[in-house]
TrEMBL record:
Transmembrane is among the record's keywords: yes
Annotated protein name in UniProt: Uncharacterized protein
Transmembrane segments: 79-98
Keyword Transmembrane: yes
Top-level taxon of the source organism: Bacteria
UniProt keyword list: Membrane, Transmembrane, Transmembrane helix
């Protein structure tokens, strides 16, 4: 992933795939897209959370809209943290697997 906005795009693609399988409605996808594509640039998760909090502190939106936004933000943050942990585990396991494979080859050459 080149920038963090790519994670939002990936999440929206997952939601859209759920729409195609009739697990979510197209209206849900439109709301997720409307509220999440606002966050184009953010460096880390703390900055994203602060941007989301600023969005929720807007006094010009109704409580129902705030609740909807909060639930969408919560769902994305939950997915994002699980995705990052998943990528980290795969990266570590791949490194260990490659490392073991290299060690075996080096050992065989010495014998």
């Amino acid at each position: 992933m080149n920038n963090n906005f790519d994670y939002i795009q990936l999440y929206l693609r997952n939601i859209y795939n759920m729409v195609q399988r009739d697990q979510r409605s197209i209206e849900t996808y439109k709301q997720y897209k409307k509220y999440l594509t606002v966050f184009k640039k953010w460096e880390d998760i703390n900055e994203l959370i602060s941007l989301m909090n600023k969005e929720l502190q807007n006094r010009q939106i109704s409580n129902n809209s705030k609740l909807t936004k909060r639930n969408i933000f919560k769902a994305f943050l939950s997915w994002y943290t699980k995705w990052i942990i998943f990528i980290w585990i795969i990266t570590v396991n791949l490194y260990i697997f490659v490392r073991k494979k290299v060690d075996v080859k080096l050992y065989q050459r010495r014998c």
